[in-house]
Amino acid sequence: MAAPEEASDYQGLSFEQLLGALEELTSRMASEEVGIEEAAELYERAVALHRLAATRLEQVQARIEGLSGDQPSPG
Fold first, then answer.
1. Does 33 map to a domain?
2. Which long-range contacts (CB under 8 A, 24 or more apart) does 45-53 make?
3. Does 45 map to a domain?
4. Which end of the chain has a smaller Cβ tally under 10 Å, C or N?
5. With contact defined as beta carbons under 8 Å apart, do 42 and 28 qualify?
6. Does residue 3 lie within any of the structural domains?
7. pLDDT tens-digit profile of 10-63?
8. In terms of residue numbers, what domain contains 56?
9. How many Cβ atoms are within 10 Å of 55's Cβ, its own excluded?
10. CB 34, CB 42: distance < 8 Å
């Protein structure tokens, strides 16, 4: 799967797709065939992916906590 070129291109991806794209970028950055300029660009994309994935995770956690707060605790 090719990584999107712009941060806005990541918006339509699922959390799992974001993680996959992040893993792909990480592998490419670790490659000895990547020059310093390309590595910097890949790093910028990875940061954007990480931020979006973290935001999505926080949103899901808030939803779960909201649902948990509406129900009585067992026992």
1. yes
2. 45/3, 45/4, 45/5, 45/7, 46/22, 48/7, 48/10, 49/3, 49/10, 49/18, 49/21, 49/22, 49/25, 50/22, 52/7, 52/10, 52/11, 52/18, 53/15, 53/18, 53/19, 53/22
3. yes
4. C
5. yes
6. no
7. 888 889 999 999 999 999 998 889 999 999 999 999 999 999 999 999 999 999
8. 15-65
9. 11
10. yes
Record the tokens describing residue 36, joined without a space: 């310093």
Which two structure tokens, joined as six digits, stand for 35? Answer: 């020059």
CA distances 63 to 13, 30, 68, Å, are 19, 36, 9
Domain assignment present for 29: yes
The Cα 64–Cα 66 span in angstroms is 5
Residue 6 has pLDDT above 70, yes or no: no
